[in-house]
Structures are given as C-alpha cells and as structure tokens.
Request: fold
Amino acid sequence: MFALLCVLSSSASAQSASRSVGTTAGGRLIDGVELVDTPAHHGNGRAARWGTAELVELIDGATAAVQRAVPGTPSVATGDLSRRRGGRAPPHASHRSGRDADIGFYYLGREGEPLRAQRFVRLLWSGRCASQGGLECRLDARRTWRLMAALVRGRSRVQYILIAPHIRQLLLAEATRVGADQDTVARFRLVTSPIRGSREHVNHMHLRIYCAPDDRPRCADEGPLHPWYEFTPGTPEEFVARARERGQRMLAAEVAREAVDRAQRERALARRQRALDRVAAQRQARLDRIARAQARRTAAAEAAGQARAERIARANARRAASVAAASQARAERIAQARARRAAASEAQERRSDARGARHAAAAARGHASPRAEAPSRSERIARHRARAAAEEAERARRLAAYRALAEARRQEVAANREARRVAYRAREAELARADQERRDRWAAHVAASTEE
Reply:
C-alpha cells in the first residue's frame, strides 16, 4: 500500500456538503451524513453511523436495488461507518474519515425463507451459519451477489470490499450460476482480491470508497487505483495513463489468478471425486463379498437344516419302526400268554370236571365230598374271565399310554424343529435388514460427501 496525495484541485460542478479529510486510518470527517435506517437496511446497534454523502448514497442505492430486483428481500444489517466528526473509532484501525462501512450479508432460514438478521452472523466454509443461540441459517448467495453487483457496477467509487475467501468463492459461484455480466464479475474479483485482513471478515463485508473529487486534495486516496478511478480534472494524461495501465494489469492478473484457482479447484474436485469413486468401489466390493458370504452362509444353513431334517426323519422312522416292532412283539407275547392261559383254563376245567365226576360217584356211593363247598365250575370260569378281562384292559391302557407318549414325543420333536427353523429364518432376516441399513447409511454418506 502506498499513499497517493492528489494535489490538483477539482472544479466539478456538483459540490457535496460532506468532506473526507486525510486517509481512512488517520483522517477526520466534516459535515458527515448519518446513515439512517430504511426498509432496505437497518443498524445493528453500533454508534458510528456517519459517513460521506457518497458512501451513504451508495449504501442506500445498492440495498434498495436489491429489494427492487428480488421482491420479498428483508433489510440487511449495517454496522460501523465513522463517528460524527471522524477520528478514532475503536475497535477499528480505519473508519476515521467517513469512507469505510461494515455491511452484513443476506441469509436464508431453515426452510429457505428470507431471514432478517438483527446482527452480523458468522458463516462457515459451507456457507451455513455458525451456532448463534439456536439460529439455523445459511448465506443467501442470490441476494448477496446482487448487493455486490450493485456496489461495483457503473461509475462506482468502490476501492475495497473485504470478505473472507470462502464467502468470495461462494459469491463467484453464484455469479457463474446466474451468468452475471463479465465486467461486473471482473470488478468484483478486483475489489475483493484477498489482502491482509480479508480472512477476518466472516460475518460482514468491509466497504471502502475512493475520495470524492470535491474532497481533494485534503482527502488522500491510497493505492491501488482501479481502472474506474475518477481522477481529478487536470491530472496529467501521462499519470492517468500509467495509473490506468497498472489498474488493467491488476485486473488481468486477478482474472489469471482466478483462472488458476478455478483450475486448482477443479483438479481438487476431480481428485476428490476419484477418491469417492474408489471408496464407493471398495464399499461395493465389500458389500459384494458380504453378499457372497451371506449367500454361502445361507446355503450352508439350508443344507445343514435339510441334513438335520433328514436325520430327524430317519430317527423318527427308526423310532416308529422300533415302536411298531415292540408293539408287535408285545402283541405276540400277549397272544401267547392268552393262549397259555386258555390252555391252562381248559386243563383246569377238565380237572374240575374229573373231580366233579369223582365227587358225584362218591356221593352215589354214600360218601360225603370233602370239597362240597367249593365254587361251581361256572363261577370259576366267570371269575377267570373277569380277571382276564381286567388284565386285558390294563394292557390296553398301558399300550394306549405308551402310544400317546410316543406321539407327544414326536410332536415335541417336530415343534422344536419348526421353532429352530423359524428362529433361523428370523436371524437371517435381521442380518439382511442390518446389511441393508449399512448400505443405506453408506449411500447417504457418499451422497453427502459428493454434495459438499
């Protein structure tokens, strides 16, 4: 930075009542004009609200132009200009001669609605607002770019607009999106070119204008002098030509630097996209491996289940055959026992008949039978049959109980097998849901990374 004191007086026809004296860091203000609140802008509570007539007119006109261009635009916050008579304006190092102003940005709310911010709000690299007591917002690049364009186009006196580099890139991206005029974009690039102090301006812009021709030579401009700088009438043509040539070189250098930065950003984006593609391919390969492993586990589980079902079926068949063989053997043993009991009964009946015959013969001979009180044959047969029937009923009851127990055991085995099959299928479904959730989360992460 170098100090350039214009020593030629001005004979401009239009005279301004306000006067900026000295430099922005060591001057004062005479007959300053107060920046009063309008529907297009409002103060943020600071006391230094005075500037030159040219600065106040520029702010009023630019903010009003934004509201005319974009209906529904809320007022934008404005901060310090200069004190009423200029001089020191803590905590600022400049803001002393009425040619500096702090202006906020336009913001959008959570749902994309225009938001009126009472104070300056810090913006992150993504364009979102830093946490401000629960306030959720982001940069309104559309309206903020229109404000920048209104400040720099035409016969502008703007020398600097200090903003953080990441906000500058967001606004240049918006200018590219809307197809802004190249001359306006070139001017914006030049006045916002990063210099010392730019990085600190993350919640507002610092606007500085050149001295009005009426205020020279007492008002001192500091370089650089941009191509649109309004020289004092009578300035030597050679000096004007050299100054304009320097300004054009600065503009060309800024455009070239912006092209280099854009190429670097594009290469960085390409590298990032390739990295994201590699990550996506690795994730897809991992998901494929997981799917194949899952398929193998499912096939193995199905084969194991089928083998187990076959083993259970064979065991059930063996048990059924064993039960049938045992039942058959028991039935044969029962039949044999019945045959033996029947043969014994017949032998007993024959012996009883023989005794009866002997008793009858003895009675005929006049001898009393020693067993006259013994039960008759029919009673013995009846008792024997009753015992046989009771034994048969008991055997039938035991056989039925055995068969019921065998059937209950078979049903229990079948129920356990079905429960294990259902549990296995539920586990497989749970694993499939968990895998799908992991895939969805990863896809969302990749999409969010791509959007950033």
Q: What stands out?
A: Confidence is low (pLDDT under 50) at residues 1-15. The first strand starts at residue 3 and ends at 4.
